[in-house]
Write a structure and sequence with these properties.
Mean pLDDT: 92
Order of helices and strands: EHEEEHEHEHEHHEHHEEHEHEHE
Strand order of the largest sheet: 10-9-8-13-11-12
Number of strands: 13
Low-confidence stretches: none
Oligomer: single chain
Length: 297
């Protein structure tokens, strides 16, 4: 039986530490700013993250692209040549067309390499929720499972990740077309902080609104706390968009006080998700009951 390699993409927000720890690779999307296209590298430094988010703080918009065909070809073929089958876990199709592109490239490579299996899975998630699926898939694959078994496992658990996010400002969401300009203006004026979730079909949108930054942070912790199953066996994953260290430290302390979890991981929200969600966003994720709430198409 061929070994199984887990591949994700730039929306997974797995940093270098997690990619190496769980032996995961990723296909890069791109950012576009002032006519310059750059790969969305998840192994970036705090200085590089700060530079990107400062561009947005100055009122500029950073565009993004899905994973290019050539990138999929290079990454998939690399591991096929090394003797692997592949399970690619991609960003929600509601957010990116990459998972469909991955499926097309996978079919072409499998036709040219009889006996090779490549799955392209819609994670129904993004950000660290997508990354968590890749981590669980890699841990499962490491027990000697086949690509089909890993595929079945990911499909089984992909709706059990609960993701709650709050943003500091609605401006980036407005520029990315997520809210209307007037809504963004009056929301910011009144200090309204939307709570954003990933629903049962992969949409990411405002679930509720909370007045004030501190209240919004408390709310996403309380919402996740209600959803978790066996938190003492879990790592809670926190992502942030270049927030102040003091605020992140306080947020982590709040999480540890409210949730009796095994561990807490903190990392940056990567360049692709960050380009839409904007500076100073915070997201928290964990496993619980199956997500059934749907925001609609």
């Amino acid at each position: 039986m061929r070994k199984v390699k887990i591949i994700t993409d730039s929306c997974s927000d797995l940093n270098k530490e997690l990619l190496e720890k769980y032996d995961i690779d990723y296909a890069k999307m791109n950012t576009v700013y002032e006519g310059v296209t750059l790969p969305a590298d998840l192994c970036w430094t705090p200085d590089e993250a700060h530079k990107l988010y400062n561009i947005m703080r100055e009122g500029n918009r950073i565009l993004t692209t899905q994973v290019p065909v050539e990138e999929f070809n290079n990454v998939f073929q690399k591991y096929v040549d090394l003797g692997f089958d592949i399970v690619y876990i991609g960003c929600s199709l509601k957010q990116s067309g990459s998972v469909n592109t991955g499926a097309v490239v996978a079919k072409q490579i499998m036709e040219a390499n009889p006996g090779v299996t490549i799955f392209s899975i819609d994670s129904l998630n993004a950000c660290l929720a997508e990354g968590m699926l890749a981590i669980e898939a890699s841990k499962f694959a490491a027990t000697g499972k086949s690509a089909q078994e890993v595929y079945d496992y990911v499909i089984k658990i992909r709706k059990t990740i609960h993701e709650y996010c709050t943003v500091h400002s609605l401006d980036s969401l407005r520029r990315a077309g997520r809210v209307k300009g007037a809504a963004a203006f009056f929301g910011n004026l009144m200090g309204v902080k939307p709570i954003i979730i990933s629903d049962a079909v992969g949409n990411q949108a405002a679930f509720k609104k909370v007045k004030g930054r501190q209240n919004s942070l408390k709310e996403i912790v309380n919402l996740l706390k209600q959803d978790l199953i066996n938190p003492e066996e879990q790592t809670i994953y926190i992502g942030h968009a270049d927030c102040e260290k003091e605020e992140i430290d306080q947020f982590v302390a709040m999480v540890k006080q409210e949730i009796p979890c095994k561990d807490v991981f903190v990392g940056f929200i990567g360049p692709i998700i960050g380009a839409s969600i904007g500076p100073d966003a915070i997201v928290i994720n964990g496993f619980g009951d199956e997500v059934t709430f749907s925001l609609g198409a």
